[in-house]
Amino acid sequence: MKAIIIVLFTFSLGFLARAVDSIDEPWFHHVDGTSVKEESIDLNTNATERLNIRYSPLADRGVELERTTNNVVAWRTHVRPLGVIHSKYHHDVSVRIESDKILVTSIGAQRIFEVRALKTGALITRKVDDVRTERNAFALNVGIEEALAIAKTYVKNQHLDISDSYVDSVRLERVPTAKKGKFWQVTYLPKRYAEGLPIAGGQLYVSVYLDRTVEIGYGE
What we know:
Elements (H helix, E strand, L loop, with lengths): L1 H20 L15 E6 L6 E7 L7 E7 L2 E8 L12 E7 L2 E7 L3 E7 L5 E7 L2 H10 L2 H14 L7 E10 L7 E9 L13 E6 L4 E5 L2
């Protein structure tokens, strides 16, 4: 009996050690909405399961992914940065859920595309490639100013109420499964987020494609 108890105790310690190992130390201790941003994706309807995303739009500091259950951290992991030396820097991050996987696109000096397990945060695949040529070619067709103008015109013509919102960002996106490829995403946020509050719904996403067609989406 004593031997069985010892074996069970040893197994329990091993399980707890693996659980602790799955929670990385945080990389971002202060979210101010400017140098460090935080976004969240609710994984169920009552918001007890959530995926938090943190990154710096101004620096090559990687991406922090954190899953919580009832506000308790289940796991925390990180998308490694490129490790480039820079002064002025622009870093875009988009994250979406497909079935039981997390798809992360991080675009800075290069594009990082990672697929991770939603249940554990474990890395499944990672790909790094050059995006500068693609960025320049697309920008020549639809520049950022034109994309913003198209988005504003569309919002006005569709009579969408943005009186209590502001344009938070205009960034170049490329979703691997998107039928139309690259697009500019114009994000409207409610004014209450201007002071750096965690984003928890109310976003309006306006996507402007190369052919100048527009689609909209909403944050939850």
